[in-house]
Structure formats: C-alpha cells, structure tokens
UniProtKB/TrEMBL annotation:
Organism: Neoroseomonas marina
InterPro entries noted in UniProt: MdtA-like_C (IPR058627), MFP_Cation_Efflux (IPR051909)
Any one biological process term the GO annotation gives: copper ion export
GO CC, alphabetical: cell envelope
Gene3D superfamilies, alphabetized: 2.40.420.20, 2.40.50.100
Domain of life the protein comes from: Bacteria
Protein name: HlyD family efflux transporter periplasmic adaptor subunit
Length: 564
C-alpha cells in the first residue's frame, strides 16, 4: 500500500519540473505584442517604448505597478541629462511626472493601466533646449501580464536551455530524496511470523506516507512561483541573433557612452616596441676608477629616491693595493722623507750664509725641497689616503650598489642618477625603410597611459637586426620610471581614410577578431567586426566594417561584450 504514495511524491516533483521548464519556453506572441521582430526587446522585458530627436533620446518603461519610468539621454552620446524637466501627455491627456533623482522621471496616468495602444508625447526642457518627442506604447492585455503559457512549446529550445536542466535536476533530486524517505523498508527476518495486521494498523501505516505526500505537494507549490521569477524581467542578456539587450538603468550604472561615426582621414601609424630611458644630458653613472674599498661619508650613503646635487660627496674610495706594492710605496715614502730632511738642513745652512753664497743656490735648494714634499704627498694616499666619490649630475638616486667595506673593481658602477623631469623613450624598428619619414609619435604604457613624444634621432647602425629610434618625452607624468616598457606609435606622412574612434571602443570578440558595438536602438547593441589601424595610444582608425552615421559605443564596450 505504500507504493502509491511513493509514486505520488515522484509524480508531484515531476510535475513541478514540467511547470518550471514551461517558464523557460519561448513566449508566444499575442495580440498587440509582437516578439518576433529583431529590433524589439526580449519577450520577458517589461512594456517599453523609445523615441529620439537630434538632441534627446527617451526610453519609457512600464513598471508592474502601472507607473511609467522615463529615462532621458543625449542623442547620440547616450549621456544622461541632469536637471531636465519632462512633461507627458497620454492620448492627449496630461500625466503626472516627477523626477526621482537618478537620471529618470516617473509618470502616472490611469490609461497606463489599461490594455491597448497609447500615444505619448514627451516635452523635454533642458536649460535653453526644448524638444517634442512623440512615441507609441503597446500595453498588453491583463491576462498576458502574468506568466505566458505557450500554445505550442518548442521543446527543442527548452532542452537547450541550461536553466531548465538545472531546475529539473534539482527538483528531481528533491523528489528522489523524498521518495527514498517514504519508501518501505524490509524488516529483518523473525523466528515467529507476525499475525496479519488489522484494518486499524493499515490506516496507521498510511499516515506517514500521506504526510510525506502533503510535504512534497507543498514544496512543489512553493517552488513553482520561485522558478517562474528566476530571471529578472529587465536583466541584460544576449539575444538569439547575437545582439545584446542592455536596459537604460544598467547603461547608466555602467557609464556607457556612444558617438556618431564620421568618416575622416588620419596619418598611418606604425607600432614599435620601446622602453623609457634616461636623458643622457641629465643623468649620470658613478663608477670606480680603480680597485678600492668603499667607505661611507659623514652623513651616510645616499638612498634610492634621494635628491642630490652636482659635486655632492656620495662615498669615499680607499685604494686597494697588494702587500708587496704597499711595501714598495712605503719604502719610497721613507726615502723621500730622508731627502726632505737633508734638503731642509742644507737650505738652513745656505740661508745662514746668504751673504757669502750665490742666491741661485738658495733658490735651487728651496725648489728641490718643494718637489720632495709634493712627491711625498702623491705617495701617501696609496697607503693611508682615500678619494671622495662625487655626483656627476644633479637628479635623483635611482640605483645604489654600494655598502660599507665593499671592495669594488675598476669601472664597476656604484650609483645611477636620473632627472625624473627629463626622460626619453627608445624604440626599435625592424624595417628601417618604414621609418625614414616620421611626422609625429606617441607612446602608451601597459596601463594605458598616453605619452606625447618628440622625435630626437635615429641610429645609423643596426642593433640586433633593428634600428634604434630615440624620442623625448614632452611631458613626463608622475610614476614613469626608467626601463618601463611602452608601445610607440610612429606617424608617417601617408594618410588613410576611415572612422576615428577611441581605442577603448574596440574590443575582442569571443572568436578573437576586433569588434565594435553599434547602437541601432536605445537598448540594443549589435557587434560589428571591423578592421582597425592604430593611430596613437588613445585612438584607432576603423578602415572597414562601419558606415558613417552609425552610433558606436565608446565607453563600457568591454562590459557590454561580457553580457551572456
């Protein structure tokens, strides 16, 4: 007797699955509301209308409570118009319109709650600008406001819908779990068989199964409306034809902007790999002239980022010589000091008898004594002296390679000094003939920061099969460092016709080729494959794939491409 209730639980779960999958079936078109048009919003979207003029664009969306939410933007830039006032008439009768403070207005009118076609007239005033925008709003019948039941459900489309499979699998697991709990279990064998149950025992044994069946039915009734509202009404989504539906409120959150395509001419550019280098006239590298031991100055070694001036003492270098050479130097110094003592004594004797000796002898003795003293001074630093290391240029310490007591070899770099306000960019060109004439150049960092460059010169010798080109940064932004990689765009005198767009307007499609998004409607975006030619770090030239007059998304195009 328990098997029928077990089957009832499974049947209720299966019916819930079928009801849920019906939610995901395509909505059939009904009278006055056509879902088959390619430019229309999705079937699950709320009733809406759109209209535009040369100045403004209006999108009106009917909320479930009968209020009409009006979104006002500039045309064709899709930029919200703050502080504007809107007056609305519905079939010639004025409606109550109030701003809600989020780039939109809310209108109320009794006719908006009744099915049929409504003629709307928007009067927009923004400062000194005013415009009239007519529109037509199709209101569905009240029966169509709920969940539409398809007359002929397309089961193949349902089978391809992942939401239907997910909901069906979850409910199937729920029904299986409830059925397993309510299924009869075998009792262990007993030595003495039980007597046949009476009618009262049978009734008592059926009560748990009936309770489980009621629980399953209650769960099915609770899950059905939840599944019916599983997907938001006006959520961004990709249409079957490949276009993307993005409601106006979502566009405002994304900061979406657009521009009308215009054909023009621009200089053809070449993309080169480069890096930031220091200006050779405003930088310096400190090296050791000979093998020596490094000692810190009185105020310590300079640190990275410290500002130094030309001639400032950075460190001391104590020459390092071999023990045998040191002994020879000391012997030479001792010999010189002995000669100094002898010469000083002779000079004193000659001075005492200056009246009886020639003045030339006294001057020779003095010159000899001075020479001996200079020889001693020249040999003393090799034993006990140290040489100061001075900054060759003013700037900022960028590299420090010294430590107290460190022994360095000759020509070993110790400090690098760079002036952060004077930087260059060096690029390499593998085709020297393509850069014989340079009309201008720009660069862009890995983070997208644009740099303006001035051409300095090109090399006459190849470096690793490439020709080096050097440019001067006209304005050095904060945070730019030596060695940072950049992409250099070199403009040539040759010009090419096309449509100039910001670089962020071009995104990569799922297949890889570049695309842009056209706005044929206020809330519909169509991907257009294009052929682009980079101009500089901020602009590109579209040479194929777009026609003049098309509205193209220039900001938030990458976010639109992520809608699925």
């Amino acid at each position: 007797m328990r098997r029928p209730f077990h089957m009832l639980a499974m049947l209720l779960a299966s019916l819930t699955v079928l009801a849920a999958t019906g939610r995901f079936a395509p909505v059939a078109a009904h009278e006055g509301h056509d879902h088959g048009a390619a430019s229309s919003p999705p079937a699950a979207a709320a009733p809406r209308t759109e209209t535009h003029s040369d100045l403004f664009e209006v999108v009106a969306i009917l909320a479930p409570d009968g209020r009409l939410r009006i979104h006002l933007d500039r045309f064709p830039t899709a930029e919200p118009v703050p502080g504007a006032t809107i007056a609305l008439t519905v079939d010639g009768d004025p409606a109550d319109v109030a701003a809600d403070g989020s780039y939109s207005h809310v209108a109320r009118h009794p006719a908006l709650t009744q099915a049929g076609r409504r003629n709307l007239l928007f009067t927009v005033t923004a400062g000194a600008e005013m415009d009239l925008l007519p529109a037509t709003l199709e209101l569905p019948a009240p029966a169509a406001a709920g969940v539409a039941t398809p007359a002929a459900p397309e089961w193949r489309a349902v089978a391809r819908n992942p939401l239907a499979w997910t909901a069906g699998l979850l409910l199937l697991l729920l029904g299986a779990a409830i059925g397993r709990v309510t299924a009869p279990r075998q009792l262990p064998p007993q030595a003495v068989s039980n007597p046949l149950p009476g009618a009262g025992d049978i009734v008592r044994s059926l009560r748990p199964d009936r309770a489980a069946a009621r629980t399953t039915a209650l769960a099915a009734l609770l899950l059905l409306p939840v599944l019916a509202q599983a997907q938001p009404i006006d959520a961004p989504r990709r249409q079957p034809d490949g276009s993307v539906f993005v409601p106006k409120p979502t566009q405002h959150l994304l900061g979406l902007r657009a521009v009308a395509a215009e054909r023009s001419e621009a200089a053809v550019s070449l993309q080169l790999v480069g890096q930031v280098i220091a200006d050779p006239n405003a930088s310096g590298r400190v090296q050791s002239a000979e093998a020596s031991r490094i000692e810190a100055p009185e105020d310590g070694f300079p640190v990275i980022g410290q500002q130094v001036a030309r001639g400032q003492r950075l460190a001391y270098a104590v020459p390092v010589i071999a023990a045998q050479d040191r002994a020879g130097v000391r012997a030479s110094i001792a010999d010189i000091e002995a000669q100094i003592v002898i010469t000083e004594a002779r000079l004193r004797r000659l001075t005492a008898i200056a009246s009886t000796v020639a003045a030339r002898e006294i001057s020779d003795a003095r010159a000899e004594l001075e020479g001996l003293r200079q020889r001693r001074a020249a040999n003393l630093p090799a034993v006990v002296g140290r040489e100061p290391i001075l900054a060759p240029a003013s700037g900022v310490i960028s590299v420090v390679r010294v430590a107290a007591g460190q022994v360095v070899d000759a020509r070993e770099p110790l400090f690098d000094i760079v002036d952060p306000a004077r930087l260059w960019v060096e690029a390499i060109a593998f085709d020297p003939a393509a850069v014989t004439e340079i009309a201008g150049a720009t660069a862009v960092t890995a983070s997208g920061q644009a740099l303006r460059l001035a051409f300095v010169g090109r090399g006459l010798a190849l470096r690793q099969q490439a020709l080096p080109l050097q440019f001067r940064l006209e304005e050095v932004p904060a945070g730019l460092v030596v060695g940072q990689p950049v992409t250099v765009s070199v403009q040539t005198p040759r010009r090419l016709a096309g449509i100039v767009l910001p670089a962020e307007a071009v995104v990569r499609s799922a297949e890889g080729p570049p695309i842009v998004f056209e706005m044929p409607g206020a809330e519909r975006f169509v991907p257009r494959p294009v052929r682009v030619q980079p101009l500089d770090g901020r602009r590109v030239l579209v040479t194929a794939g777009l026609e003049p007059g098309m509205r193209v998304v220039t900001e938030a195009a990458g976010l639109v491409s992520q809608v699925r």
